[in-house]
């Protein structure tokens, strides 16, 4: 039996990737609200996804406030699609 990608199997990281698979980009505040996570936990999980190349983070400013925008990469899209395929196979769907 094939093991599920442990990086995507985390509830918050899976939620983030699920959101990003359906939008062109999402900012930090949007992701925090949609996942009901804390800023600190979300930040750690985004860094993990970014460090393996599943997402890219762009940090900038809007006025004097910082803004972080997240986008899924082609590599991340393929990893997510493989995760879903592996999960379906595991569940015999």
UniProtKB/TrEMBL annotation:
Superkingdom to which the source organism belongs: Bacteria
Protein name, entry field: Transcriptional regulator
Organism: Palleniella muris
């Amino acid at each position: 039996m094939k093991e599920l990608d442990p990086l995507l199997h985390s509830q918050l990281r899976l939620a983030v990737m699920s959101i990003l698979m359906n939008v062109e980009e999402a900012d930090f505040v949007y992701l925090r609200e949609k996942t009901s996570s804390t800023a600190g936990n979300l930040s750690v999980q985004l860094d993990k996804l970014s460090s393996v190349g599943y997402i890219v983070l762009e940090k900038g400013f809007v006025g004097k406030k910082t803004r972080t925008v997240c986008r899924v990469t082609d590599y991340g899209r393929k990893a997510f699609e493989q995760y879903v395929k592996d999960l379906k196979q595991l569940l015999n769907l």
